[in-house]
Design brief:
This is N-formylglutamate amidohydrolase. This protein has six helices and 13 strands. It is α/β, with parallel strands linked by helices.
Length: 276
């Protein structure tokens, strides 16, 4: 992996180079092993939280971890194109519009002891903007090369906070073209439903049951590109003890192994259906 500027990363994409990079401010990573018509993204995987914010933050390290999506990058780690955030969403949220990306409150609790300075906000928003410059260059290259693109937008959610039964997997589709892509959305739901997890973890998959696909990553790509489908794919945090901050690596590994086969299979269905 190389440490590269955003400008260099974009130049490499435009030249169709293969590379594995971390941005020069360590805010995100991008791997391009091969140019294919699908991308995996893990915008909430990051846990870094810059030191200048530590003493001003009212949320604990555990509070932040609880609302992040740990291991979502590792679930898609083997795929040829993978972009992932390194920073905590408590610093700035890559899945929110820029004007909402730096929180003042988080999940009903005030975030800062004293309001952030304009300089601190600007630093965070620059990272947010740079990430999306790269996303735009990446999807533009793939659409121009293949005509279409599909993005697997990986997230997780805290199932124990719900007071009803919720699915193991949820697809959020309220901001994508369901009429055009409906069959491929349902195909993805069925594939997820058939994943088998260790310890007899119950396996269900639903559409718009817990979340609706309102995130900025999906909406930015969908609104910018005509022929790219973004599938906001949420796994319940059955792969960890969300109350005690314990990861179950055997469950993560099982998800990763099965997605290794399922994502390329589904992406090929998508490409063969929509490439013309």
């Amino acid at each position: 992996m190389e440490r590269l500027s955003v400008e260099t990363i974009i130049a490499k994409i435009e030249a169709e180079e293969q590379f594995h990079a971390v941005s020069d401010d360590y805010s995100f990573t991008l791997k391009v092993e091969k140019y294919v018509p699908y991308v995996c993204g893990a915008v909430h995987d990051g846990h870094q939280f810059r030191k200048s914010l530590w003493n001003n933050c009212l949320h604990s390290e555990y509070d932040r971890w609880y609302e992040e999506d740990p291991e979502t990058k590792n679930m898609v780690i083997t795929h040829p194109i993978l972009i992932a955030g390194c920073d905590s969403r408590f610093e700035y949220d890559l899945n929110r519009f820029p004007e909402e990306a730096v929180f003042e409150t988080a999940w009903g609790k005030q975030l800062w002891k004293k309001p952030l300075s304009e300089e601190e906000k600007a630093l965070s928003l620059t990272k947010h903007a740079n990430f999306y410059k790269v996303v735009e260059a990446l999807i533009s290259k793939i659409e121009s090369k293949f005509g279409v693109c599909i993005v697997y937008d990986m997230h997780s959610y805290n199932w124990k906070r719900w007071d009803r039964e919720v699915p193991t997997w949820n697809l959020g589709t309220s901001n994508i073209d369901n009429e055009r892509f409906g069959k491929l959305i349902e195909s993805w739901r069925q594939m997820l439903e058939n994943i088998v997890l260790p310890h007899e973890i119950k396996q269900t998959a639903a559409i718009n049951n817990t979340f609706f696909g309102n995130g900025y990553f999906l909406r930015f790509i969908t609104n910018t590109f005509k022929n790219t489908l973004v599938l906001a794919t949420e796994i319940a945090k059955v792969y960890c003890d969300e109350l005690n901050q314990i990861i179950y690596p055997e469950v993560v590994a099982s998800v990763e192994k099965q997605l290794q086969a399922l994502i390329p299979k589904h992406a090929e269905q998508f490409y063969s259906t929509y490439k013309n």
